[in-house]
Amino acid sequence: MTNENRIVTVSGGLYAVETPSGTVQAKSRGVFRLNGIKPVTGDYVNLLFEDNAETVITDVLERKNEIIRPPLANIDIMVLVVSSCEPPPNLFVLDKLTAVFESKSIETVFAFTKIDLAKAEKYAEIYSNIGCKTFLVDNREGFGSEELRDYLKGKTSALIGNTGVGKSSLMKYIAPSAEHKTSEISKKLGRGKHTTREVRLYNLGENTYIADTPGFSTVEVSRYGAIPSEEVAGCFREFREYTDKCRFKNCSHIKEESCAVREAVKNGRIALSRHESYCRIYEEALKKEREY
User: Fold this and answer.
1) What is the CATH number of the domain that holds 50?
2) pLDDT in tens, 194-231
3) At the N or C end, where does the chain have fewer CB atoms within 10 A?
4) Are residues 257 and 236 located together in one domain of the fold?
5) Under a CB-based contact definition with an 8 Å cutoff, are residues 116 and 88 in contact?
């Protein structure tokens, strides 16, 4: 048994598992369901090759992180693919996802597409100012995709974004071998051509993995994970240098007097849109906690 076995996609109760000797089709043991464990794409697993030629997942190794939607584990970077127009960026959605990934110690990277149709610099500036890597990409010509591809080397990354932002087009530039690998995995699982209904993880070599994921709608964002109200401020990295300077230790940074975070917003050191998103996320978390 080895921890070099990694699930690269899940389809209909079957698991395509990449091993040192190739990709195999595997099933999971019923004990996982009894224990409330469900193997997901990105998991490292132990395998048992049975006498009847079936391959069984016997253990899911400890995860460093996990997100529920899309079901993924052991991710280093989430690439938020954002259209500069059609559909226009929803800053609240971006901030909520960034906060969720921050809470799970996953780096958020932004790739702004459709820059041939509208400028994205004003959006990119918001997130580069908080320390996130941002890339402007033209999916027609491939401009900017090479820089993004280089940044993702040696990491396990996933591309996520609203339906219609150009995620699939960007995938073709940064993972040109993915189509061939899709066909290979589909044959192992006995499934048809991949249409981004499930999550698939592609090994691009040099210890580089990238996942393609289904597009999401705004209403589905809440399924990515919840953050306790007292932890929300810590997921906004630009707040951290100010939170200890607030007058009250339990400051919520919403309406208190002598709040250093609110003062930083007023002085332009924290983007107003980011603080507005924080207030919404905090209030949502508080409301859910009060319901329980």
Assistant:
1) 2.40.50.140
2) 444 678 999 998 899 999 887 765 545 566 667 899 99
3) C
4) yes
5) no
CATH of the domain at 235: 1.10.40.50
* pLDDT tens-digit readout, 30-40: 767 667 788 99
Q: What pTM was estimated for this model as a whole?
A: 0.86
Could you tell me if residue 1 is inside a domain?
no
Give the pLDDT confidence of 113-164 residue by residue, as tens digits: 988 888 899 999 999 999 999 999 987 877 888 999 999 999 999 999 887 8
